[in-house]
Here is the input.
Amino acid sequence: MRFSKLECVVLAHDIPEHDLRAGDLGTVVEVYPKGGLEVEFVLGSGVTQALVTLSEQDVRKIDSRDLLATRRLAKVA
Here is the structure.
């Protein structure tokens, strides 16, 4: 599966150290050789919650049947 810069993606699993949960939306900000991706997750204010390096297996493309939602973080860094 190939991803492009600035593509919106869905996280496939929780990343507790960054307070990210499966289903959170992120934006691909860099695509590395061999399937690596740099993905940014932002708060509603536009502040970056996390910038993480992931593999293509850690995210999926948004599907037309996905329902978009928000959630509150217990603590904002």
Q: What stands out?
A: The mean pLDDT is 93. The radius of gyration is 12 Å. Residues 8-61 form a domain with the SH3 type barrels. fold (CATH 2.30.30). The chain has one domain: 8-61.
